[in-house]
Amino acid sequence: MLTWRRVTEGNFGLLREWLARPHVARWWHHDTSAEAVARDFGPAARGEEPSEDLLVTEDGTPVALVQRCRFADYPEYRAEPAGQVELPDSAVTIDYLIGDPARVGRGLGPRVIRAVVAATWTDHPDASAVIVPVNAANRASWRALEKAGLRRVGTADLEPDNPADGRAHHVYRADRPTGRAPGPAAPA
């Protein structure tokens, strides 16, 4: 069973380990020093900024990280895709990683994405869509989005996380289900 909670400062060591693993480092391209992780994850962990860093567990074991935020809360981040794809003011985005390389390629990514997207409709009652740009070269990531039920709605020229990658990004979208009031998230 998948569950999640907000990342705390006590999880920074685990995040450093995950970010340093080759399958994650390739796409996240994040400084793994203690100072960098505290700088980049600390404000959300302390509730000082509106983004959510979610530690996902499967049967109690930490397995993934999902970052979720409203585009409107980060105008500079919103500006880049906004001119290239339809981006509602109330759209939410996610980013994600699977920490353990032994769990990659086993369907965990789509399950995590599907569960967090479903929970978004309850957690963010004003969210009309979840929109996720993913580097076009990151086939595993965009395939996970497709398997989770998101649809590709365009391609955008965006700054890559890793300078070694090209600027082409596929943009995926899930719209709030119609015909149902916000309620509990669908089971994972």
Automatic annotation (TrEMBL):
Renumbered residue ranges of the record's region Disordered: 156-188
Pfam families for the chain: Acetyltransf_8
SUPFAM superfamilies: Acyl-CoA N-acyltransferases (Nat)
Composition bias type Low complexity, residue spans: 179-188
EC number: 2.3.1.-
This protein's record includes keyword Acyltransferase: yes
UniProt entry tagged with the keyword Ligase: no
Keyword terms: Acyltransferase, Transferase
A GO molecular-function annotation: acyltransferase activity
Coiled coil start-end: none
Stretches with biased composition (Basic and acidic residues): 164-178
InterPro entries per record: Acyl_CoA_acyltransferase (IPR016181)
Name of the protein in its database record: GNAT family N-acetyltransferase
